[in-house]
Write a structure and sequence with these properties.
It contains 28 helices and 18 strands. The chain is of the alpha/beta class. It folds into four domains: 5-103 and 200-246 and 389-436, 3-Layer(aba) Sandwich (Rossmann fold); 111-185, no CATH class; 251-386, Fumarase C, Chain B, domain 1 (Orthogonal Bundle), CATH 1.10.275; 442-663, P-loop containing nucleotide triphosphate hydrolases (Rossmann fold), CATH 3.40.50. The strands form three sheets. A seven-stranded parallel β-sheet has the order 3-4-2-5-10-1-11, sandwiched between helices. A seven-stranded parallel β-sheet has the order 14-15-13-16-17-12-18, with helices on both faces. Strands 6-9-8-7 form a four-stranded antiparallel β-sheet. Helix 23 (515-524) links the parallel strand 14 (507-509) and strand 15. Helix 3 runs parallel beside helix 4 (58-69), helix 10 (207-214) packs across helix 11 and helix 21 (462-476) crosses helix 22. The radius of gyration is 26 Å and the shape is globular. Bound molecules: iron/sulfur cluster (SF4). Iron/sulfur cluster is lined by residues 115-118, 172, 177-179, 182, 184-185, 188, 190-191.
Length: 675
């Protein structure tokens, strides 16, 4: 079938090929509109930006024209694993039988794959005598799995959580991977999946690998993605901050520790004698001194490196010693590399780290880059990030691929694409854009409630006055609530307050296990309340009454302490523009829309969104936020909200909604967590 607007419409029509092949396929006008817009971009060889609300079926909206056009490989890059899994495990098995020649490959980040070389090294040095019985059994299971696995995807080995410290020892980074010189290169899972991706017609990957490929940063593997005819950047609102990181640079105390660890594993027979070990100890000591340059008790913080050097008297010397010790070790190893391949690699790694420490420990001399340091509980990372990403995206992503589709549920601010287009470097006048409205009945199924009499969030009494108001609403909805906070400080206070009250439902809080486990518990106990921050603002996909009350503590303006954001705001001001209007508001709107998007995940969903921040109603910029939210019914008093909620629950329970929605069933339109 050719790829014309009519052919696309027929393919997605009520009695079209997709409807005949896919059970419960629900045709949507917005999906056809999106697919035809993508089709035109492919035809004209240009880029397109599409905001597609939840429930529009955007995955089929971009895949159908791409596969009908059959111009060559298609790369789909997502920000989250959830969406990647949704596309690969749910959408593609429905769509690909209609395109029999197309082979799809999922390419995850390298940290998801077993590195057989490092696994063997680790197993050879690990001391089982200090392990518990449980750890020994787990190790045996891991060794057994590693000898059997074909794909080497760590998700196959269920006894290894995302946070498990063993992961560092059995996976690779671009610094420690030996690439083609590795004795396990042929069997290497990451290498195998990379080769499969080179041959595939459709590659589902993540933003990081897409950008790393553009920045030529997959180290010894070289190019990892084929020359695709089209790239889809899904969840595209997340691309700019990651671009700033991937096209920048960084070095951490962890990397130094890993280098020393790998050196010690080699042993005396590989040339690691007393002299080398003494030098390695010196590097280790210098690394620890960098961490101790912060006053005791300080375990986190971010600051531009020049300001930090002035503020912390011990830091300049500690950074200088770190650099010198790494350089000396690299020199020593370099003198011993003859006939010792692994020593040569470590010398190279040491020199690379030394160079980065040398460069990133001083203020940047390039206005487009900011150098800053991040202090963690047991680490220090020096970063050099891009202040703006428009230039690199224009020179790489948009120059390399004929058609790039940027899509997400949250790209506009009050209906306008300007901020996103400027940020990614696309022309505001000539780039085609489209808003595909969500198909949900927001006015009848949702309520926006902003409590009338709270103080300004800057008022120190704010959080104390806020918590009882949150509690009132949560009692009215009998739980079934997600409470999203803009800071860990508010989350901690809320958690402590909720613990002092009596509730008829479980109260869960971030920090009680992994994100995945917490969401599973939240899903499994439908009346529970979950308090969370950070990553929970995105990708939480819980349907039915279980999440029918969503509370947001305040407007999510980003922290002005972030050194990269500060540098960006300074640049905007230098150009005579308002940093608040051009930077802070669009970022806060995107975040608010992502958070608010947790409420309606299916056409049968319903619920209350409470945004506690009084600036939504009182500040003159509040209307930008309101106009950016879906068209919800607005109520100003808790009693009215409670009555409305009671009514819609009664309707829902009377069978209006259907039981399937409560457990995540529903119609198929080819959409991920946000589309
Ligand atoms: S090529 Fe790299 S990732 Fe693969 S086994 Fe070797 S070191 Fe590990």
């Amino acid at each position: 079938m050719p790829m014309t607007p009519d052919a696309i419409a027929s393919f997605l029509a009520p009695k079209g090929p997709l409807a005949r092949a896919v059970a419960r396929f629900e045709p949507r006008a917005g999906q056809v509109d999106m697919a035809q817009t993508v089709g035109r971009a492919i035809e004209s060889g240009g880029h397109v930006v599409i905001e597609a609300g939840t429930g529009t079926g955007k995955t089929f909206g971009y895949l159908v024209p791409a596969l009908l056009a059959a111009r060559g490989p298609v790369v789909v890059a997502t920000a989250t694993r959830t969406l990647q899994d949704q596309i690969f495990e749910t959408d593609l098995p429905r769509l690909l039988p209609l395109f029999p020649g197309i082979k799809a490959v999922r390419l995850k980040g390298r940290a998801n794959y077993l590195c057989p070389f490092r696994m063997k090294q680790w197993v050879a040095t690990v001391d089982v005598r200090v392990m518990t019985l449980e750890e020994r059994l787990r190790l045996r299971g891991l060794i057994d799995w590693s000898s059997r696995t074909v794909e080497g995807d760590l998700a196959e080995f269920h006894d290894l959580s995302e946070e498990d410290p063993w992961r560092r020892s059995i996976t690779s980074t671009r610094e420690n991977c030996l690439g083609r010189e590795c004795p396990d290169f042929v069997e290497c899972p990451f290498n195998r999946v990379r080769l499969a991706a080179m041959e595939a017609g459709l590659i589902v990957t993540n933003h990081h690998l897409l950008l790393a490929d553009l920045a030529l940063k997959e180290g010894r593997f070289g190019q990892i993605l084929p020359e695709a005819a089209m790239v889809v950047v899904d969840e595209a609102h997340n691309l700019p901050p990651l671009t700033s990181v991937v096209f920048g640079d960084s070095v951490s105390t962890w990397q130094t520790r890993d280098l020393i660890g790998d050196l010690r594993k080699l042993g005396i027979e590989a040339g690691v004698d007393e002299v080398v070990l003494r030098e390695a100890d010196r590097v280790h000591q210098a690394t620890e001194e960098v961490i101790h340059a912060w006053p005791s008790g300080v375990e986190e913080g971010k600051e531009e490196i020049g300001l930090l050097r002035e503020r912390l008297p011990k830091l300049p010397e500690a950074l200088g010693d770190w650099h010198q010790a790494l350089s000396d070790l690299a020199d020593l190893l370099d003198r011993r590399k003859e006939g010792a391949e692994e020593i040569a690699k470590l010398a190279e790694r040491g020199q690379e780290l030394a160079d980065r420490v040398g460069s990133l420990s001083q203020s940047s001399t390039r206005p487009e880059v900011v150098h800053w340091a991040e202090r963690g509980a047991r680490s220090v990372i020096l970063h050099g990030h891009l202040v703006e990403v428009a230039g690199v995206l224009r020179q790489t992503l948009f120059a390399r691929y004929p058609t790039v589709v940027m899509t997400s549920a949250t790209l506009t601010t009050a209906g306008k694409f300007d901020h996103f287009l400027i940020t990614v470097g696309l022309d505001r006048e000539t780039t085609p854009t489209l808003v595909v409205p969500g198909s949900f009945d927001y006015p009848n199924r949702t309520v926006l409630y902003c409590p009338p009499d709270l103080p300004d969030p800057k008022d120190p009494r704010y959080i104390d006055q806020l918590l009882p108001r949150m509690g009132e609403l949560v009692r009215a909805t009998e739980g079934h609530a997600l409470l999203l906070f803009t800071s860990h400080r508010h989350l901690t206070k809320a958690r402590a307050w909720f613990e002092t009250q009596d509730w008829d439902f479980p109260v869960l809080a971030q920090g009680q296990g992994s994100r995945r486990a917490l969401l599973e518990r939240f899903r499994a106990t439908p009346e529970s309340v979950l308090l969370a921050t950070g990553s929970f603002w995105e990708g939480v996909d819980i349907q039915g009454r279980s999440l029918s009350c969503l509370i947001i503590d305040k407007l999510p303006f980003p922290s002005p302490d972030d050194p990269v954001l500060r540098a960006r705001m300074a640049q905007v001001k230098e150009r005579g523009r308002s940093d608040f209007v051009d930077v802070m508001i669009p970022l806060a709107v995107t975040q608010l829309r992502q958070g608010a998007g947790r409420l309606m995940r299916h056409s049968n969903d319903f619920g209350v969104l409470m945004i506690c921040d009084p600036r939504l109603r009182r500040a003159n910029y509040g209307r930008i936020f309101i106009e950016s939210l879906p068209p919800m019914k607005r109520l100003g008093h808790l009693a009215g909200v409670a009555r409305w909620y009671e009514g819609i629950v009664a309707e829902h329970e009377a069978g209006d909604a259907g039981s399937e929605a409560d457990r995540g069933g529903g119609d198929v339109a080819g959409g991920g967590p946000d589309g």
